[in-house]
Amino acid sequence: VVKGYPHKVLDWHEVVNDEIGNDKYVLSYCPLTGSAIAWPLDSRTGNTEFGVSGLLFNSNLILYDRVTDSYWPQMLMKSARGPKDGASANQKLVFETTWQTFKQMYPQAKVLDENTDFSRSYQSYPYGTFKTDDNLLFNVNNSDDDRLHRKERVLVIHSNSATKAYSISSFANDIEVIHDVVGSTAMVIAISAGDKYGVAFERTLADGTLLSFSTVYNQLPIIMSDNEGNQWDINGVAVSGSRIGQSLVQTESFIAYWYAWTALYADTSIY
Prior knowledge:
Order of helices and strands: EHEEEEEEHEEEEEEEEEEEHE
Distance between the termini: 34 Å
Strand order of the largest sheet: 18-9-10-19
Largest sheet: 4 strands, mixed
Shape: globular
Helix content: under 10%
Oligomer: single chain
Number of helices: 3
Radius of gyration: 18 Å
């Protein structure tokens, strides 16, 4: 089962509590920071649904859980106030891409539609030119970091206290797969400027094998192959070869606006 959540709906509602089979999760999207993050509704997060608090931290959405009423700044993926203070969530893999590319990859996917029983203007963006201009609606830390445009969409990775950003627009239009090291962890990163997605995984498997990857073109959702001959899709799952069904280790990573990430991690390096 594959599910898709359009920005035009999440721009207005920001949080979806959903499930696939017995796998319950919350997907949140913050339109002011451009960040989409999902985590399980499990014992770490209190086995509860989440809502929008109406509060912000450095312009980023703060969720609240509906059992303890604790606050959870979205991009930090942990509770910062309330009975769950200090608890952290496990990130679930989600990826962002264009509607055209998503339909091409998963034509049978279930998609959140506009029949939400709420009266919202889903065909209009609620924040005007915010996506492209240089203005901010609220003050944030480190707002003078001009190494990239404030609204540049970057894939950000946080590993072993190290942070690194990959500017989506600086990569190839079709797809580009690279190796890099963040902190002390060997990573494989796949980014498409044209299809507007970016994903990152650890290169070392659970059994200790270090793989090398190369790009696979025009076979979406397959995006790369490795030195053993396995092919891997955008979710980091082997879809052919001797490791079929195995998954790459997910990194703590997601796409966000440049200004939003550096407000939290000023010492971020740029690939």
